[in-house]
Amino acid sequence: MSNEIAGRKIWARGIVQGVGFRPFIYTKAVHSHLTGWVRNTSNGVEIEINGRPEDIQGFIHTLQTSLPPLARIDEIDIQPCPPNGYTIFEIIASKPQPGEFIPVSPDISICADCRRELFDPQDRRFRYPFINCTNCGPRFSIIQDIPYDRPLTTMAGFEMCPTCRQEYENPLDRRFHAQPIACPQCGPGVWLEAGGERIAAGEQAIQTARRWIVEGKILAVKGLGGFHLACDATNPTAVDSLRERKHRVGKPFALMAFDLDAVRRNCHITLQDEDLLLARQRPVVLLERAANSPVVPDVAPRQQTLGVMLAYTPLHLLLMEPASGFPDLLVMTSGNLSEEPICFDDDDARRRLDSMADGYLLHNRPIHMRVDDSVLRVAAGQPYLLRRARGYAPDAVPLIKPAPPILAVGAELKNTFCLTRRQYAFVSHHIGDLENYETLKSFEEGIRHYQQLFHIRPESIVCDLHPDYLSTRYAEQRSREEDLPLVQIQHHHAHLTACLADNGWSSPEPVIGLSFDGTGLGTDGAIWGGEFLLGGYREYRRVLHLAYTPLPGGDLAVRKPARMALAHLWQAGIDWEPGLPPVDTLCLEERTALRTQLEKHINAPLTSSIGRFFDAASALLGLRQTVTYEGQAAIELEAVADPCEEGLYPLEITGDRLDPAPLWQALLIDLYQNTPVPILAARFHNSIVAAAVEGCLRIRQQSSSRVVALSGGVWQNRFLLERTVKALQRANFAVLLHHQLPANDGCISLGQAVAAAAFREA
Ligand code: ZN
Ligand code: ZN
Ligand code: FE
């Protein structure tokens, strides 16, 4: 052992603020007999340590191997320096540097320690709905600016009581520098409101709210990132009237449970499902519904799954506490009128939810940024995102190479935007469908907030090719106003590049991209959506695609799969025989007009969309002739497909196209022979799987590419996804799936950003 004293200066970047990082450093340093200091800066944490070389080495080893639960180091720099003369180890004041940035933690569900204290009658925060600590609680939704300190959060208005302050200032306390720290003496409170009046406050408000729910009322509940509309999921009258008041037809409602036991009584869950339900993000997880569950079928019409999340805030736990006569599951759907963004401001909620809620469970901790619940399912053996929001955003997607500051505005449906800075891509939380003023406003506010939070001033803007998307118009306007270059990236190329970036793909080898979705404007003016691309970040070639079919009436054909089915039959040269469900659905006038439209090419753009291909099949099988939300017909087709069926129809490749005509002929023969619909549905899926693999094999013959990236909303179909992955792997392809982002258009903004960055580099 040596007696010499050495010094080190350590600089760490990543999620290192507001997550108990400095107390952790303090404890470890003292433990290792080191002196010196640690402090927050505007872009991370700085540490200076002095001690014996072996102690320093041990300390650095700890840093690299064990961290507090929410902390993550992305970059670390360690330099020798002369010992600084400190005789103790200290946490010193933060050092702000203008223009710098650090990642901001997402909102985190209540931790096990806080949960224990919440239900401990001896604890001073017993049954306090806003209990939190450095390991849990609100973050992103309450942060107005960085550095992440209390005055820059929506907790600024609450002055800490002496006891809270003591905990806040004690490096050894679990609440050291927990910015949202609060207690019943000094923190926010809850109350219940109805008809413009306060009915009750505190515990009494929660108990009254619970009683109202049992009585079948609908409550607006202010949560972490916005309002929910809550009701008893086992009460048909309550669920019905919620659907009616919200103008939400068909689309499933999310549910909330107190704990895993309550979920198990209603769903069949695997160990992987359990892990996902218990993950600190506490997302909504799609689970297989148990036949004996008392949940009203109309919660998720025509689906075999239920979307369930566990209570993730102390307020939710108190609201959901098990008791005899209280339901296991509550509907917890976002507090909004269908298609509008979730309410997050009290007055806005009072205005917009007034016709929907019988009462409001409110609190006075303001929400600065609205964030919806995230939605996942287990698919292909991994957690698979369907909607990325609370708990995930604003975590950055790490890039393989530093990028210049770029703003990518995403697509139209399931919009997200993306801002890049150095090696980070900040993909926003789910914004929604950019089809109305409210959502557009939320999109613009979101961009402003992210730019400010991460101090990003974009040097270029990226958008879709589609001139009518509100995101494209926003991009054009900003590019004009701020004199910034505007780059347009084709939608399906963006799917491919998003999947590459999601997987940290860095090889120059071209990848086969199967970009299968509903809609995206192609470079030839047609609406693409069944694309076999070959390329990388910068360039791509469209090698194969589903043969074009007219989309009669554009959006009308999207809303009415029956029209799509007839368009497909017409294109395949098959007669519209009476007795076929889509033929019988449409009246003679509509069919006549449709035929004219098809024959004369009136308002019938061409499409290679696989989403619409699914719609047509769903209609032909008599499952769904009109839809109330995007993807509904395909979701219902997937739901009935028989997993034991291996048969398929011919979907042949001629030239650069997949020709669906022989598939329709074979499917109709089955249909006329009264083959059960679940068999037909499975065969339809299997045909696409086989065609996808066959297409990839052909491309491999020409290009020797062995890697396939699956992106686009169609890959949210688990039946199709899992069979395609297996079949591709059997054919010796490596398959890239999305991990950090959904396969749907929520990934487009990332794809646009990385494609534009690669383009700029060239
Ligand atoms: Zn906690
Ligand atoms: Zn207090
Ligand atoms: Fe798409």
Descriptive tags:
single chain; 762 residues; alpha/beta; twelve-stranded mixed beta sheet; seven-stranded mixed beta sheet; 31 strands; globular; binds zinc ion; binds fe (iii) ion
Topology:
Layout: E1 6-15, H1 21-31, E2 35-41, E3 44-51, H2 53-65, E4 72-80, E5 89-91, H3 112-118, H4 162-169, E6 190-194, E7 197-201, H5 202-214, E8 219-222, E9 227-232, H6 236-246, E10 254-257, H7 260-264, E11 267-268, H8 271-278, E12 284-289, E13 305-310, H9 314-320, E14 329-334, H10 346-352, E15 359-363, E16 375-379, E17 382-387, E18 397-403, E19 406-408, E20 418-427, H11 437-453, E21 460-463, H12 470-481, E22 486-488, H13 491-502, E23 511-516, E24 530-535, E25 540-546, E26 549-550, H14 555-559, H15 561-571, H16 581-585, H17 588-600, E27 606-607, H18 610-620, H19 632-640, E28 652-654, E29 657-659, H20 661-672, H21 677-703, E30 707-711, H22 718-730, E31 734-736, H23 748-761
Parallel strand pairs: 2-5, 8-15, 10-13, 12-16, 19-21, 21-22, 23-30, 25-29, 30-31
Antiparallel strand pairs: 1-3, 1-4, 2-3, 6-7, 6-15, 8-9, 9-14, 10-14, 11-12, 12-13, 16-17, 18-20, 19-20, 23-24, 24-25, 26-27, 28-29
Helix pairs in contact: 5-9, 13-23, 15-18, 18-19, 20-21, 21-22
Bound molecules: zinc ion (2 copies) and fe (iii) ion.
Overview of the structural elements:
It is globular and about 90 Å long. Helix 20 runs antiparallel to helix 21. A hairpin with a 2-residue loop joins strand 28 (652-654) and strand 29. The longest helix is centred in the C-terminal third of the chain and has 27 residues, at 677-703. The chain contains 23 helices and 31 strands. It is an alpha/beta fold and 762 residues long. Strands 6, 7, 8, 9, 10, 11, 12, 13, 14, 15, 16 and 17 form a twelve-stranded mixed sheet that branches. Strands 28-29-25-24-23-30-31 form a seven-stranded mixed sheet, sandwiched between helices. The chain binds zinc ion (ZN) (2 copies) and fe (iii) ion. One zinc ion (ZN) binds at residues 160-161, 163-164, 183, 185-187.
